[in-house]
Each structure stands twice: as structure tokens, then as C-alpha cells.
Amino acid sequence: MYFDDEQLLRWMKGDKSAVEFIEMICDVAHKWDDLIDRDKELNDDSINKLFFDLLIRLPRNVFYRKHFEHLNSVLMNAISNWQIATEMEREGGDYETSIAFILRSSYIDLITQAAMLTGGNQWACNVGKQARAITHNETYEGYLKNLTKEKQERAARQS
Cα separation of 16 and 13, whole Å? Predict the structure, then answer.
């Protein structure tokens, strides 16, 4: 996880349910990516937790339920953007990959929007700037290195 509990609690203005929502979504996003890219092995416990969180904990989360109409649309968009980014990484060239670098982390918009719901627009802009800087600290060069490794491993599995 990129963000620690204390930081998330500060960003969510003390709303523990909002923090739980963000932690769950970030964990799900990373595990989903691992399953699709097949770059990290997920054990049975990790997969069971993933599906329990999706099917039981997320629908029961107080913050998500209260703001469902708003957050679910943002979540839907983040999923679409991640799928588009994955396709651009796999099938596109340098230009498409540069777009995919940022597009694939649209789930961070959920942090920005949760901050907006807990602290208003100006607060959301402040939190969003910090969250993006932390999320992309691997740098574009690091992303390209990891992407190249992933492509080589996928090609080796298909051989």
C-alpha cells in the first residue's frame, strides 16, 4: 500500500469508514492488476480476502453506502481507464504507453473524491496532488522498466 493509515485518516478528515473504503479499493486494484499481469503470485488466502472484500466488506462500508451514487461512478471510470491503459500498454507504442502510465492509476481519483466528500473541493485538490505524487514516485522510467520485464515474462509464458 502506498499510503499509511495515519496519512489516509488525515486526508479523510478523521473518517475511519472512508479510510477503510480507500484501503480496500487500493488493495483490490493492486490484486486485480496482479491477476491480469500475472507478475505476482497471489496465494489462496490473498485471493479469498480479495473476493470477501469485494462481495461482503465493500457493500457494507458505511462511507461507500452513504456516497454510493457518487463513488460508484468514479470507480466505474477508474476500472475502464485501467482496462484501457492495460490494452494501450500491450498493443501500443511509446505514445500510448506514456498515456497509460497515468491512466492506469485512475483509482487515485477515488481518494480525491473521498477527500472532496469529507473536506470540500479545495481540500480534495490538495489531497489529490499529494496522492498523485506518492502514487507515481516510481517515475516514468521505473514504470517502463517494470513494463518491459512484465512483457518479457508474458512472452515467455506464452512460448
Answer: 9
